[in-house]
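Below is how a single chain appears once it has passed through the pipeline. First comes the sequence as given, then the structure the pipeline wrote out for it. We keep one example in the README because the format questions we get most often are answered faster by looking than by reading.
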Amino acid sequence: MLTDKDKQEYLALLIINQSDSPVGSGYLSRELKNYGCDVSEATAGRILALYDSIGFTNKMGFQGRVLSADGIARLKELEEKKTRSEQGLEFFKILETKTPEELIDVLVARRAIEREIARLAAIHATEEEIKDLWQVQRLQHERAHHSKGMAAEQDVAFHRILAKASRNKVLEGAMELIRQDGQLTPVLEYIRKEVHSLVALDHAKIATAVEQHDPESAEIAMVDHIENLIRDVKKYWNKVENA
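Resulting structure:
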């Protein structure tokens, strides 16, 4: 979450960056007040002088300041921090409506259905479907490794490719029915990030078994994957309750 100092810094840098002309202390003070920050012109001047000294701004004579490359980089860093904070708050709102029992019930149902989906996918998957599984898995791993936010869309894509590859429309339909609650996948992704668990590693084991057309290994890998999710849910709620 952004501190009050970070919020003021973010807004000041944003105001300077969005201005069509160099920014002076009077303009910065007025614009900050529009955002609810009661900053006097003198204080705004000290802020600009500080930014000059640490390299966030370049002084354009008597006209005012513009952001330097370092200032733009700092603004981007604060924007990403702000986005992560807002995403976190949104997930907490969603989590308040979900109980651990509800999440685990869904996962138990998925375990029963997806173990068979994985087994059948290992038998019937085409080379193109196997290629698609690995493409999604690699993208998911890359996003997790570089902390590029949630990878819920890759999780959905991976399991949908498997369901299609099973060549069983009933199982495929059952999975779509379970996934009708669009909040569940991002909530599970958020929980796994909070407990430092990586779903991409589970998916790699499943993809390997499917690629080798090994139904038994695919079924085992899928059951392990779902049981890891169940463990993560329990671990997260223990962490929350003991906080």
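The domain at 4-83 is CATH 1.10.10.10 (Arc Repressor Mutant, subunit A).

See the next section for the split statistics.
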